[in-house]
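Self-study notes.
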Amino acid sequence: MKYSLVAVNVSPDFNLAEYVTPYKTYDVEQNGEADPVVTSDRYKNLVGGFVTLDNGKRYWLHQPDADGFVVKKVLTVDESELDPVIKSWGSWSEIPLGGKSDGTLFSWLVNYIVNHSTFGMANPKLFDFDRRLRAFAPMVSKQYPGKISIYKDLGMRIQDRQTAMKPGRAFTTMFPEVDHKQVIMFVDSFLNSFAKRDLTLSVSKEREEFNLAYSGAQAYMENIDTTWTRKSSSSSCMRYDFEHLECHPAEVYASGDFEIITVFDGDRRIAARCVVYVAHDSGVPQAGPIYGVSEQALDMIDSHLIGRDAEMKNPDWVGARLLAVPEDADEDPPTSFIGPYLDVEPRTLDLTSDEKYLVQDHGGEIDASNYQGIISSGGSQCICCGDRVNDDYTNYSEYYEGDCCEDCYNENHFFCEYAQESFHVDSSRTAYALDSRGRTEELRVSDWAVQEGDMFVWCTDHKNWHIDDVQYCEYEDEWISPDNMKDYFRSDWDGELYNNDMLCNTVDGEEVSREELSQDSTWKMNSESEWYKEEEEE
């Protein structure tokens, strides 16, 4: 390791003071065994070494910090290092012995990487994950829940200063070769293992609880592995409020034959739900698919159903009753009803003789296979052109609040990839993203995608940008687009973004914000407009 000395507070009483320029940097000379340096403790702090002062002569300085010099470690690049990440991080041989560690997270990360061999372990010399983990020394942050603290480089490790990062950023810092999908998998797995959500489970037959489970505010969405029995809430066609109808279609499950199992997070947002037919002749609960936002929430309902010996793979809802709520109260006899898309076949129903219930049955006259909240027999009339069309060839338009034939629907609607549904053309927005080559791409998206979805954010350039292409400035509480990133820098201390107007340089060569320096009155600025810690000067 190489060293330099900065003359920040050399006393006139120092016998060589006349040959020293204040705030000048002097290299500690190391020419093999002829110019040794003396260090102490595991952090290799400099005790003594040869320095050439202003008179051109070489002197041995013993304990230079006591003579008014600040010792700076000069980090070098190990050109023989094969792993590019470790080479950029700092010389492996100069890592201080001992130090902080998080054995639990370390082991978890090793196992996770080993089990995902697509990370590039074909050439371990170029991808030495074990040494990377030992260098960065990742730890579960105690100060910032859900984050990982790492030593960003060798200099930070020598100073024992960690940076708390979101798990995805920490992982890509240590393993930049990993693709985006694998990072998402890692984040979800990490949160499930080290930052579990505060969830509660509720079971009810009440009408308002069915409504809440479907239309209530959704909890934060994670990426999950889906099957027929475990589905993402984002794919649910009935999770909207259906304000144009007398009641939410899910309320008709409140006939007494069904239960709604709901998982709430700590803010009473919906994390998972499942409709269960509990009046089956066998006495065995017949569970529909579970919809959720995270593996943890799905597992919670899954465990509850297993504990009740519920049928989950091949549920039977034949004979189940739903409340008969006519779309038009004046129609006699009613032919159209408020009702949900049925997740369990058969998706046909018959009206009971007393007109109180709709009973699920094979060959029923009422079709419950559409997503518009209205189930009916017979064809429908296109609200745009007036033509009557078979229900198999209609689409419900929330904009027109009625069914449209395919021609009218396609002419007046577009499909939003990010909401995974269609919207009226009047609800389209322009958003931006970077393509695979880093070029700006203009996107056509829905109002929902930019207002309620989690894929786009409003940036300081007054544009909606894809979340993967922007950076968050915590100090300004603003999102920064790629076009505006030139006006910002990332602090070497807290790793956050700040405007270039806040940029300050320390005597250690670090770029930090004026806001960070203001938190500690011991930081002062020298004649070269560089900041130093006063206690170090003393």
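Second protein, same conventions, sequence then structure:
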Amino acid sequence: MLKNTFIFTLAILFSCSPKKEMVDLIIHHAKICSVDSTFTFYEAMAIKNGKIVEIGKNQIILNNYESEQTINVNGKFIFPGFIDAHCHFTGYATDLWKCDLTGTKSFKEILDKIKNYSKDAPMYWIYARGWDQNDWDLKEYPNKKELDKLFPSRPVFLKRVDGHAAIVNQVALDLFGINKKTKVKGGSVELKDGKLTGILLDNAMDLVDKKIPIISDSLAKKYYKVIEKKCFSFGLTQVHDCGVSEQTIELIDQEQKDGKLKIKIFALLQDEPSYYEKWLKKGVYKTERLTVGGFKLYADGALGSRGACLLKSYTDLPNWNGFLLNDSDRMYEIAQKLYKSNFQLCTHAIGDSANRQILKIYASTLKTKNNKRWRIEHAQVLNKSDLNYFDKYSIIPSVQPTHATSDMYWAKNRLGEKRIKEAYAYNDLLKAAGYIALGTDFPVEDISPFKTFYAAVARQDSNGFPTEGFQKENALSRKNALKGMTIWAAYANFEETKIGSLEKGKMADFIILDTDLLSCDLKKIIKTKVLATYINGEKVY
């Protein structure tokens, strides 16, 4: 009788035990940095239909869920997928046919490279990008004389690393009627001793660049996949692609819908006058992986090419303050248009004068605290008296920490002893705004978010220079740097409820690393390896 009672009791217990819920993926025995409001670390998570259905201790997840795909990661570190809040994903891709001049140490080296490139160049044009005269012994703009000798009948266009200056040969100048009398608003055609040097600054580049034939759609799609793979290898699950054409958006949209492109893209439309009326009627475009949610506007150029607009003259070029690429009236008009829409306004501003003008335009339009989430892209040099605008008008600083560690070798020459202290001031910006979005600006800088993280917290380049860190007082804490690459970057495009942290109900965008970025030795950050990248619970790398 007792035996029968025992068996009956066991049967009741087993029949009452809850049935495990089937899910698509279980990750367990991990160190999961959630980047939630409390920065909680978890051990396991269950994923279904691309979302996190539960996150917690190993025992809870394994007791309540089962899956055909259950992975023990053996104590590896899991973080939310990185978000690059400012880059040029499609531009980088379609630049792959061009000659890469990154890291060249002299104009002679450039000439040698393009001479070799010209033999098998896919187009008649010789198009290259990536040179930086600041890396040369003679830190001056080159002259087109040698280009004219090498290519007397073939057009040449060599764009500077920041995309704000270029050198062209005489053939290219003649092709588009550029001469000593050519004037361009928001740009300049350089003359030296009354002769054309071939240097075109900012808007003057458009006289040539916009007329160079573009690559085919099929080749562009091929290159998108190449850059996507590179992004995944560095743990990037979303990129904010800044200044994109309608044609590019159509290509990206189709590739994503066909399942050929998995990366998530937040696209900022380029400042094309015809786009405003059309897209303001259309509204924000949103799919599972693509959002067309804002416009990229240029206030000024770059510091390296002396196109950044400064309040006072460049220290190394007296009586020159740089210039605005758009006049204030036009920028104000665009701000007014976008204020009435659900599109974000994201403005490139480098110099302290450009930043001040944009901040004032934002302020006069926004009027008070708000949820428009307008952004200043780069926010590189700011007079300290202007920092209050960020909090007062809910403006987001979107910065790229590797700019600081790339520019630090020559930026002081441009700005002088006092003004350099107001440049690349990321911690000051964070304190002023309450949040900060971090990106790379690739291909201007390296695509690696680990270099972004390292530059933000160590204020050193990849070689560990300078030992004490560049203006270390403006370093970000590790937690804040991580937030800038995840949840704050998601906030910068209205997606903080979907991505940017690992929480129940959010999309399962995460990466598995071999290193704990929050506690490892600083030198190990750049060497961190991505073991796996997941988007919507799907392993993409």
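Instructor comment on the second fold: Confidence is low (pLDDT under 50) at residues 9-14.
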